[in-house]
Amino acid sequence: MSLQDELQSVLKEGLEKINHSTDLKEITNDIKVNLLGKKGEITKVLRGIKDLPNEEKPLVGQYANKVRDEIQTALANKQEILENEALNAKLSAEKIDVTLPGSTTRVGHPHVIQSIIDQICDMFMGMGYEVLSGPEVEEDKYNFEMMNLPKDHPARDMQDTFYITKEILMRTQTSPMQARTLEKHDFSKGPLKMISPGVVYRRDTDDPTHSHQFHQVEGIVIDENITMGDLKGTLEFLTHQLFGDKFDVRLRPSYFPFTEPSVEADITCFKCNGKGCDVCKNTGWIEVLGAGMVHPNVLEMAGVDSQKYGGFAFGLGPDRFAMLKYGVDDIRDFYLNDVRFLSQFN
Amino acid sequence: MKVSYKWLKDYINLDVSADELAEKIERSSVEVDSVVKPSAGLKKIVVGQILSLEDHPDSDHLHICQVDVGEDEPLQIVCGAPNVAVNKKVIVALPGSRIADNVKIKKSKMRGVPSFGMLCALDEIGFPKDVVPKEWSEGIYFLPENAEIGSDVYDYIGMNDELIDLDVTPNRGDMLSMYGTLRDLSAIYNKPVNLDYKKLNDFSNDKSADQISNRVDLEDVSSYKNRVINNVEVKASPLWLQIRLWNAGIKPINNIVDITNYMMIKFGQPMHAYDLDKVSGKQFIVRNAKVGEKITTLDEDEVNLDENDLVVADSKAPIAMGGVIGGLNTSITNDTKNIVLECAVFDSIKVRKMARKHVIHTEASQRFERGVDINNLTNVLEEASWMINDLAIGDVCEDIVTAVDKPKENINVRISLDRINHVLGTKLTVDQVKDIFERLAFKVDVKNNDFDVEVPTRRGDIHIDSDLIEEVARIYGYDNLPSTLPEGKTTIGMLSPKQQLIRNSRNKLQALGLTHAISYSLTTPEKANMFLMQDTYETDLSFPMSTDHFTLRMNLVTGLLDDIAYNQARNVKDVALYEQGRVFYKDNEDQVRPNEIEHISAAISGALVNKKWNNNPKNVDFYDIKGILENYLSSLQLNGNIEYIATNKYPEMHPGRTADIMVHGHYIGFIGQVHPKIAKKFNIKETYVFDLNLQTIIDLPKQEQQYDLVSKYPSISRDIAMLVNTEITNKQIMDVILKRGGAYLTNVSLFDVYNGKNVPEGKKSMAYSLTYQNKKDTLTDDEVNKAFDKVERNLVKEFDVEIR
Which of B377, B405, B433 is a domain's end point? Predict the structure, then answer.
């Protein structure tokens, strides 16, 4: 048998073995070494080349290389196939139930009222308002008198008050911050634009719609050319941001001693879209805040020239907003801190 | 105030529905609580006539009535009312009808006798019990004799009216009357109204002054007038008057009382009528009550008066609480012959205080509190007299006895067009504004662009130009105002560093798994005084509502413990909360206003994560809360070392598991386990807390965020394990390692603490990993070994540790 024939039969047998092999290890070790290794079949055959006539040597050499290449290719292909099979088998064995719940990571939740307050603050900071907070234990002077509510004023009855002494009380509203900032503001440096969120207190018995502690956000803008149209635009912006701009806003006359004119702002009832339901007491409207043009007495008492300067103020209740927005029907839920309640808000 | 839509239309021509009218009133003058048609929801309730009556064989009070309801055959209806009588026209709820509260009436049998419907009392078809006249309170109602059999009953008793319930703000007392409401509607709709007052022409020959005397001892009464009417015939008022009263929510009593109430709802001026023959000394003295005096009111309540109460007294005793309610003894009864009318203006503050103190809020007190129009008193007194003469045939004395009368002048207010447009942001013209004032029936004089406005005394809420601007705005319509945003010099809106730090703190603690709680600041004195971080005195309310909310908190922890208790009582075992808010400290007992200090506090109990299929959560321990705190504090970039110093000084904390937290030597708060005794008291499971003075943290210097080079040279780690005496703390060992670690020591971490098997008594095994790195060159083993040996030597020297 010529060397060429031998190589051919090595090739044939080699390819057959490779084809039949199903074992990755056999391919990468045994078969490879047997065929291509230093003591392998091809090497063995090639040892006979030295005995060939010189003119045949290149031909046989070339053929031998071709055989080696073919075997190498076949080995590589087979190796890839077997590796893929092995990987697929492994992956299929690793299959899991993706519907099992994920591992727990502890997450905390913001308080819904705080979220609303933050949202309101951010909105107004974007319009150039500063955020200020005042004392919760307040002087009667700031809470009432400088807000144009002298002693014996009937509107004081609307705000039952926790007194500490005759002159010191738990603030019933965030409005005293109007007086406090008006007193301090230097108008030569520009307008006063301020909002003041905080906790307020009323001498009320806690029930689903009353809480002796709740929150308010006060806002005030004072400058030389502030109009009631600016108030209207600002309130519309605020309510549209908080509740969505598909709702109409209506202003109607109201009464607060510290503003004149005074208005209350209503928005379309979002439960019934204005058709009338139990939430809006069949009026189609829901009251969301009180506002008005700052009363000249308030400005003058704080030492601001009411002929030159004027502007608007508004006050709103984040508790009420949260109740309306999420349909919470008991204000006490905000202060019980039931984890099942708190964790619903993000 | 419930305003009758029908009554309004007697005066003003309105082509809008009651609902549209209510919407307009809301947008232009006062809030509307509801618009109610009394007959709404009622069905098949008709006039019937009782043809015959027989006793029910099996009942001592039921009657079997044959009732003509305008059909071919009479209906048989069994009725239990005591006043049922033949021939009377009655309210019949037919089979298939609906009566009050949506109750359906069906054919039925009453003790064996078939009954086809029901004879109704007024409250059974929806009248509030407190407006049903006494006469009809215990039985069925008799309709007028001319009522048409078989027709709906609603028109006969005023139930087809629509009632607009106004919620009048404290400034708009004028809207608590028909005339006031009509004046506003006249302005709003720009339609004329004719609001006149009736006056009697024929008076008796008797004089009031001969029969009575009156006197006012107080400054609080600006007008007080009486008139005598003799020989009145007290009886029920005509139905039309009763309807107007009950639709306004007022119970008809008798013609005299009804007329005084009618004056009140028509004109807004409360009145009172006394039975002259029961007034001792025929004197009417307006004075302060004396200590010990009592009065039994018309509502038959006995009230103990004091010297701050304003009363009308006769020569012996108080006969009325001025402006609030009359007395029973001198009230008008069916036997009354001679009456004295009273028309007065009592001080609003005085009346308000009385009404509040005695909790007697009446239609009269409501009006006096908001102020009545002093210049209208005589008009009202005249129309009342005319009406009493008309309905009760009384002989009216021409003279009015006036104890005091200080009429008011109309107020003149000047305002310019520019001012109005400047405040409202409008471009109104002189004519538009003038028109608005004239529609309001204010006299207005225009000079150039200035308006001189004369405001009638009935509008006691208008004093200054801003008040006029409100009038212009509401009549012009808030809907018509432009919608703009403030213009002017740009201002910067951003959180202050303190606000930013507080917000960051909240976000960080939430990221670390704590949920934001908001608890009450007012608590019990006991809770306020727990977990104190400094010497302080408590701040108490002077008139608390309850003992639960009595004292201002001086810590945030107790609130969180209450929250945990609330949750754990509801089977929510795993709770991790934080709160940010103020505590209220007083440095000494005499300090009135407490210092309000921002705190931030956390409490965890149960496990941090819920039990699930792939985990096995453990209950929290000291190191869990400490880990949260360390992460939080590190986010604040405080300048200086943070130290945890074991302490047993807080009586509410576990003495062996609590530490004070110090930043660069400043005390900022404490951390640890709530004392088991306290936990038991609050009814909570093992709980760990921290409470920090956030203000101190805000005030502490912060580091600038600095960049630390990430070295490209490799680091080398060496572990050291040793046996140390139990009482040696981690901090002591760390201090030595850091001090002796050399220039290349970049990190030390404790990776094992063990004191179980194979560790001798009194010892513990601790293992640290030390990381070395040279930022500028590759470290050699030699260098590391040298540094590491030094640490080992020093640990042995300092603490006699046994290197393992």
Answer: B405
Whether the predicted interface score ipTM is above 0.85: yes
CA torsion angle B408 B409 B414 B417 (round to 10): 80
Within a domain: B198: no
Residues 135-164 of A with CB under 8 A from B: 135-137, 139, 152, 154-155, 157-158, 162-164
Q: How far is A331 from chain B (nearest CA, A)?
A: 12
Range of the domain at B7: 2-37+162-189
The CATH number covering residue A133 comes to 3.30.930.10
The pTM of the full predicted model, rounded to 2 decimals, is: 0.87
B471 annotated binding-site participant: yes
B330 near B295, Cβ under 8 Å?
no
Q: How far is CA A331 from CA A208, A290, A324, B438, in A?
A: 5, 19, 11, 46
B572/A340 touch (CB, cutoff 8 Å), yes or no: yes
Do B150 and B166 reside in the same domain of the chain?
Answer: no
Same domain, A203 and A293: yes
Burial code of B369-391, b = ≥16 C-beta within 10 A, e = fewer? bbbbbbbbbbbbbbbbbbbbbeb
Which tokens is B784 given?
A: 């590391």
Contact across the interface for B563 and A337, Cβ inside 8 Å: yes
Asked whether residue A130 is marked as a ligand-binding residue, the answer is no
Range of the domain at A34: 3-93
Contacts of A214 (CB under 8 A, 6+ apart): A199, A200, A202, A317, A319, A331, A334
| Residue B70, in any domain of the structure | yes
Q: Name the domain count of chain A.
A: 2
The rounded distance, in Å, linking the Cα atoms of B700 and B697 is 5
Nearest CA in chain A to B579: A111
Q: Do A198 and A131 share a domain, yes or no?
A: yes
Given B356, B423, B613, which is nearest A227 (Cβ)? B423
pLDDT tens for chain A, 346 residues: list them: 677 888 888 888 888 888 888 888 888 888 888 888 888 888 887 787 788 888 888 888 888 888 888 888 988 898 899 999 999 999 999 999 999 988 888 889 999 999 999 999 999 999 999 999 999 999 999 999 999 988 877 777 666 899 999 899 999 999 999 999 999 999 999 999 999 999 999 998 899 888 999 999 999 999 999 999 999 999 999 988 888 888 888 999 999 999 999 999 998 887 788 888 877 877 888 888 999 999 999 999 999 999 999 999 999 999 998 998 888 989 999 999 999 999 999 8
Nearest CA in chain B to A117: B503
